[in-house]
Amino acid sequence: MLFRNISYIDENCQVKTGFVETSEAKITYIGSEAPEGNTGRVIDGKGKLLIPAFYNAHGHSPMSLMRGYGENMTLSDWLNKKIFPFEDKLTKNAVYWATLLSMGESAKFGIVSTSDMYYFTEDMVRAVTESGLKANISRSIVNFTGDSFNKMESVTEMKSAVERFRKTAKGRVLMDASIHGEYTSDEATVRELSQYAKEHNLIMHIHLSETKDEHEGCKERHNGLTPAAYFNKCGAFDIPALAAHCVWVTEEDIDILAEKNVTVCTNPVSNMKLASGICPTHDILKRGINLAIGTDSVASNNNLNFFEEMKMLGLSAKIKYMDPTVLTPEEIFRAATLGGAKAQGRDDCGAVKVGNKADLVLINLEAPNMAPVHNAVNNLVYAATSNEIVMTISDGKIIYEKGEYKTIDMEKTIFEVKKAKDKILKSI
Questions:
Q1: Is the pTM higher than 0.90?
Q2: How many domains does the chain have?
């Protein structure tokens, strides 16, 4: 595939114009002149902008089944009165279709990869593989009752998934480890999972200091240790780690995250909707910590629109610090692209660069809300709505183009999700 006379955003967030060629899942040429010997599809770049695709660093794809199910509730009530009872009735079939729906929605919003924490791992892998997109899937571990680690059904499922699905679909699907949170497992479970992840070179995906109650409760349960200090003590940060939310982290916590090279994934829309608070992203970036962006689930968002996430990240930071200069559009755009790719261990993703995976999004710059263009990155962060997306490409394959889903039967998927939702509601 060749993009001709196309404006594109390079790895330094600068707009350049030229030719960009992809072949066999990778970007193979970038230059001011047309490459020799191209025989693939040629796309005219007039009025268009080519950007790296987005990497959603924290999500729960099967929860598309619960979109709009619980509103105007505290996180505790939302989980205990709505989400957990619904999840108790989930089936493999429901998870497959719900994940496929989320993959289609992701492609529509320019997301090609998701760090996905949930269960029914096999069915999630099947949906992601069929969609042509990517995911870092982790079987979330919860242990309220202090069960022996190796005797837990969830641990058996996790280990099986790691053995069976690691680097599935030519590396599009990767396996991570996940301890759900400090308040949902005992210390022995955290330590044993951290050791397993270390032995198998897995990224550790964790909910961290999402709410004030969680943060303060941890200090009460663990002799003054914050969640970050507790997980560090348990060895969870001795491996590559991805900490979602980090709303209530302290200066000392940020020191730990910086020292251990933990990626912080901020989830601005979900955190505001549940009134959890606002992540101190400016302080995190000042310490050189990798910042990524996540949507969380659509049950608490209620969509996967990464343009909304970028805009809300910028606006919420300015309000938190009461400073209009914090978090530049370039910092936000990097978090959505390179930051997310780094969080997932995808070092050859996240930038329009020769040798990188051809994970790309084609943007229409001639939409009324995108004109004129003084600065393309500014417009992407603060003016775009997602309606400007012409095409989403994963590993060089077109997944979504002009409203058409190339790999997903969206009509059937929506039908099956509705059917699964109705069946679950009748059984609750």
A1: yes
A2: 2
